[in-house]
Write a structure and sequence with these properties.
Order of helices and strands of chain B: HHHHHHH
Radius of gyration of chain B: 21 Å
Number of helices of chain B: 7
Number of strands of chain B: 0
Order of helices and strands of chain A: HHHHHHH
Distance between the termini of chain A: 50 Å
Oligomer: heterodimer
Structural class of chain A: mainly alpha
Number of domains of chain B: 3
Distance between the termini of chain B: 46 Å
Helix content of chain B: over 70%
Number of domains of chain A: 2
Largest sheet of chain B: none
Shape of chain B: flat
Strand content of chain A: under 5%
Shape of chain A: globular
Strand content of chain B: under 5%
Structural class of chain B: mainly alpha
Helix content of chain A: over 70%
Chain lengths: ~190, ~190
C-alpha cells in the first residue's frame, strides 16, 4: 500500500529532522533513494527547486515525492506524515511541558544533536561536492576536465557572492542556472 | 471561528512569502503575530523558537503549531499548520507535473548542472553558520566526526546515528553537571 508507505516514511523523516533542511538530506537519501522513489541527483536538483519556491524544504520534498510516487493522494499522505510528529510533539510540549527548553534531559540531548547536525550537513556537502565535481561515480577514467572546470568556476562565484557579498540564495541559483546553460551550450560549439 | 480563520490566513501568508526555510520565517512571524495581531509577545516568540529548535520536525511547522496552540488550542494548531503547509503543497504539486518533462530539454539539464554547483555553496554556507553557533568542545568535535563518518562510510541507519549522538550528548552533560555542583542541585 503505497499511501501508507509514504505516510510512514515521511513520519519517520519528520520525527528525526533536526536543524533544518540540509541536515535532513542523508536521512531522505537513505529512506527515499533506497526505495527507488527518487534518484540521488534528483534530490540535489530538488534542493534548488525548494530554495526557489516558498515554504520549508521538508514540506516541499514530501509533497514532491508523494506526488511523483502516488499522485495527489500520495502527496497528501507524505505531507501529512512529515507534519504529524511536529503537531503531536509541539501540542504535548505546549500543554504539559512549559519548562521544556530548560529541562536537563532536553538540554543534554540538544548538546549532542547540535554537533550531529553539523556532521550530517558536512556529509551532505561532501556527497554534493562529489556529484558536482566527479559526476560519474568516482570513475576517474571518464574524468571530464571541461565539466570539472566549469563547475569549479560556478561554485567559486556562488560561494563568493553568498559568503562575502551576502547575496540572496535565489539570486545565487539564478546566476548558477544561467552560467550552467552558457557552459553547456558553449561546449556543444567545440 | 474568526480567530481560527485569522490564524489560517496569517500562516498561509507566511508560508507563501518565505523562501529558504525556518529561520527566514521568524521576522515575518514576529511582524504578523506580535506587531499586527498582538496574539503573542516578543518574549513568547523567543521561547517558541527555542522549543521549535529542540523538538524534531521542521522549525516552520513547529513554530506554526506552537503559535496556533497558544492562541486557540488544538484547533488553532491545526488551522495554523494547515495554513503554513497549503502554499508549499499547492506550488510543489504543480511543479511535480512539469519538472521531469522540463528535464528533457538540454537547456534545463544544463541549468541544473550549474545549479548543483551553486547549491553546494548554499550548503557550505549553512554548514559554516551552524558551526559558528555550535558550542565547541572535545565531545562536540567527536560527535561531529562520528555523525559525518557514520553517514558517509557505513551503512548504519541515519536515525540510529542521530539517537546515538543525542545519547552521547545527554550522558556527557549529565556527567558534567553531576560533577560541578557539590550537592544541592541533585534531588
Amino acid at each position: 500500500m503505497i499511501y501508507l508507505e509514504l505516510f510512514f516514511t515521511f513520519l519517520k523523516i519528520g520525527a528525526f529532522t533536526f536543524g533544518g533542511g540540509y541536515a535532513m538530506i542523508p536521512l531522505i537519501q537513505s529512506e527515499v533513494v533506497a526505495k527507488g522513489w527518487m534518484a540521488e541527483e534528483e534530490i540535489l536538483n530538488f534542493i534548488a527547486v525548494s530554495e526557489s519556491t516558498p515554504g520549508p524544504f521538508a514540506i516541499n520534498i514530501a509533497t514532491y515525492i508523494g506526488a511523483e510516487t502516488g499522485g495527489f493522494f500520495g502527496a497528501v499522505c507524505s505531507t501529512f506524515g512529515v507534519v504529524f510528529p511536529s503537531l503531536v510533539i509541539i501540542i504535548l510540549v505546549a500543554k504539559f511541558f512549559t519548562s521544556f527548553k530548560d529541562n536537563r534531559i532536553v538540554k543534554g540531548c540538544m548538546s549532542g544533536l547540535r554537533p550531529t547536525v553539523i556532521g550530517l550537513i558536512a556529509s551532505t556537502a561532501l556527497t554534493v561536492a562529489i556529484s558536482v565535481f566527479l559526476p560519474k561515480d568516482l570513475d576517474f577514467s571518464v574524468f571530464d576536465v571541461y565539466s570539472f572546470v566549469s563547475s569549479l568556476i560556478i561554485f567559486g562565484l556562488a560561494a563568493f557572492l553568498l559568503l562575502s557579498k551576502k547575496k540572496n540564495p535565489i539570486l545565487i541559483i539564478a546566476i548558477s542556472a544561467v552560467l550552467g546553460i552558457a557552459s553547456g551550450y558553449l561546449r556543444t560549439l567545440f | 471561528m474568526k480567530e481560527l480563520l485569522g490564524l489560517f490566513i496569517t500562516f498561509f501568508k507566511i508560508g507563501l512569502f518565505t523562501f529558504g526555510g525556518g529561520y527566514a520565517m521568524i521576522p515575518l512571524i514576529q511582524k504578523e503575530v506580535v506587531t499586527n495581531k498582538k496574539w503573542l509577545t516578543d518574549a513568547d516568540i523567543l521561547d517558541i523558537i527555542a522549543i521549535a529548535e529542540s523538538t524534531p520536525g521542521p522549525i516552520a511547522v513547529n513554530t506554526a503549531t506552537f503559535v496556533g496552540f497558544k492562541t486557540k488550542g488544538v484547533p488553532g494548531a491545526l488551522f495554523a499548520t494547515f495554513g503554513l503547509v497549503l502554499p508549499s503543497f499547492t506550488i510543489i504539486y504543480i511543479v511535480s507535473f512539469i519538472l521531469r518533462q522540463f528535464m528533457e530539454f538540454p537547456a534545463v539539464a544544463y541549468a541544473f548542472a550549474g545549479i548543483r554547483a551553486g547549491v553546494l555553496a548554499l550548503i557550505l554556507k549553512a554548514l559554516i553558520s551552524m558551526y559558528k553557533q555550535c558550542p565547541k568542545g572535545v565531545i562536540s568535535y567527536i560527535i561531529m566526526f562520528i555523525a559525518f563518518a557514520a553517514v558517509l562510510f557505513t551503512k548504519i541507519n541515519v536515525i540510529f546515528v542521530i539517537l546515538f549522538c543525542a545519547a552521547v550528548g545527554l550522558v556527557h552533560s549529565l556527567i558534567v553537571s553531576s560533577r560541578k555542583p557539590k550537592g544541592g542541585d541533585e534531588k
